């Protein structure tokens, strides 16, 4: 029985995958985020008199939850911004940003946070 769920949202499309172990789920999350960071782009949007820059828009979101499907103990993921940058977070509501340490990528910071005992 798979205990970790990876959910990837790109626009209106949602992909789900289930994994038995956290490490395999994190590897799949990292592969998908790297692909989305290369391919998902947004243009600046004009909304009335306000311009919303691509870097402030979430082009895709990859979320990991588990173990278990009902009331999972761990939730985290990575937002892919419209300019291709990524930002890791934990929690569901509210989301808390995961600050990378020196020389650390957002994905590595998420892995560190989720695997910490």
Fold and architecture overview:
By secondary structure, the chain is of the alpha+beta class. The protein is 24% helix and 38% strand. The strands form two sheets. It has a six-stranded antiparallel sheet, covered by helices on one side. The longest helix is centred in the first third of the chain and has 18 residues. The chain starts with a strand and ends with a helix.
Radius of gyration: 15 Å
Q: Helical element count?
A: 2
Strand content: 35-45%
Shape: globular
State the low-pLDDT regions, or none: none
**Structural class based on helices, strands and sheet pairing:** alpha+beta
Summarize the structure.
The chain is of the alpha+beta class and 117 residues long. The chain has helices at 22-39, 106-115; strands at residues 4-10, 13-19, 45-47, 50-52, 58-66, 74-81, 86-90, 96-97. The strands form 2 sheets. A 6-stranded antiparallel sheet has the order 2-1-5-6-7-8, with helices on one face.
For this entry, give a set of tags.
alpha+beta; two-stranded antiparallel ribbon; 2 helices
Task: Indicate the topology.
Elements: E1 4-10, E2 13-19, H1 22-39, E3 45-47, E4 50-52, E5 58-66, E6 74-81, E7 86-90, E8 96-97, H2 106-115
Antiparallel strand pairs: 1-2, 1-5, 3-4, 5-6, 6-7, 7-8
